[in-house]
Fold this sequence. Notes:
The complex is a heterodimer of chains A (402) and B (113).
Chain A: H1 4-27, H2 30-51, H3 57-75, H4 96-104, H5 111-122, H6 127-133, H7 138-154, H8 164-186, H9 197-213, H10 218-231, H11 257-273, H12 278-291, H13 300-313, H14 318-332, H15 334-341, H16 354-366, H17 370-383, H18 387-401
Helix pairs in contact in A: 1-2, 1-3, 1-4, 2-3, 4-5, 5-7, 5-8, 6-7, 8-9, 8-10, 9-10, 10-11, 10-12, 11-12, 12-13, 13-14, 14-15, 15-16, 16-17, 17-18
Chain B: E1 2-10, H1 12-16, H2 20-37, E2 41-46, E3 54-57, E4 60-63, E5 72-81, H3 84-91, H4 95-98, E6 103-108
Antiparallel strand pairs in B: 1-5, 1-6, 2-5, 3-4
Amino acid sequence: MTSVADALAQAHRRDWAQVLATTAQVTRDLDLAEECTQDAYAQAMETWRRDGVPSRPGAWLTRVARNRALDLLRREAAWRRRLPLLVASDPSPGDDRLRLVFTCCHPALSREHQVALTARLVCGLSTAEVARAFLVSEPTMAARLTRAKKKIATARIPYRVPPPEALAERLEPVLEVVHLLFTTGHTAPTGPALTRADLTASAIELARTLHLLMPRSAPVTALLALLLVIDARAAARVGADGRLLLLSDQDRTLWNHDRITEGVSLLTESLRRHPPSRFAVEAAIAAVHAEAPSWEQTDWSEIIGLYAVLLRLTGNSPVVTLNRAVAIGFRDGPAAGLAALQPLTGEPALATYPYLAAARADFLRRLGRVAEAVTAYEEALALTANETERAFLTARLQGLEE
Amino acid sequence: MTKYTLLIYGDPAEWEAMTGEQRAAHDAGHAEFRAAAGDRIIGGQELEPAPTATTLRGTTTSDGPFLETKEALGGFYLLEAADLDEVLALAKLLPEVRAGHSGVEIRPVVDHG
């Protein structure tokens, strides 16, 4: 039997956005809807302990939050003068949660506001948690959320799913934000743990919701495929001793093969009728790794070819060039890899990106150029704030100095 | 309903340099915008070029626009609409959105009512 705390944590992850979105339909005010949703979860802790977990926790929470909102609105004599934030939407196809996601990711909001709002309102993370995940102080994040909500209210960003002709353009920031939430959780930018499982889980839930609601959208399907295939390796990325394990050292039996199968089948579906999106190509690369029986049997030529496609789709992104160079290094040897990294020297976009120095360090180490490798490892260490990654780099550095 | 201003910014030299044909296409774009917006338009004017501006700052009166930038305010519309998406859809009709040197800033108007 699951405990009340577990049930609540699960309901938080799965139902927060739905409860908030439905309540927002009543309040037409995101701030007030948020307050009522928080109250409902607080009340759930108490009531569920006393009476047991209801059979449909999401419906219970929605009812409580809505009633709370109606109470507050009735009590507030002047509520009709309240600036109506959320423009009532026509009964459009789709789901309340989807409406909330599209509101948070409206292109009139900056990317940092989109991410903050989605993490807070759709994923239900606390302001402190969002601040920690995105490396800003809590007051800064609180101010950022306030500004974003104020812009939604004063500029009247509507609370609705955009019409079909605008959907493709409006979907892009949504997918970017979900992807960003996932990658932030996949390798936490700071802190002792390699991952933030709450963020990756929220991102996958969001991608699943989008896919349920837009099953025919190829980029949505591709994004879900990508997240599933990458996340399938989560259990194998850190050893029993907490050490970071590279793909080459991971125990492949720990991979979640159901997730891989699901992801690959979604990817196939996404590629069937559509030109590949960026996410589809990234998912294809992840799938080549996931389906290789062993590290030694990885099809590097296939991966290098896919990176070439990705380079075209991303306008020669430096990060993609870096990843492709690493793949070349594995197929053709460290000297070839080092040569492929050469064009990135002095690339301003990678000036604080630790993986460029880490990749150079690895090639130099394998070439026996110890002194240069030491410098490169030290550079990578200076740029990495994740403790698990630091431990890995430090171990490699010590191995060289012995 | 909310009131919005659409502030049209661009490079005055580029506007000056338009050929008669370009000017006609430009005007047609504005006509299309006005037809689509209908009575949601409350007001709007094209402004004389920035060098005709006079700026007051404290007790100093000076020649020229408030901000000395290459891209100057060239005109504005005042619009009433239900939400930002409605304004965005209309503003996309303005020719200044597509010309490389110019763009349109949409600002809600403070409601003192």
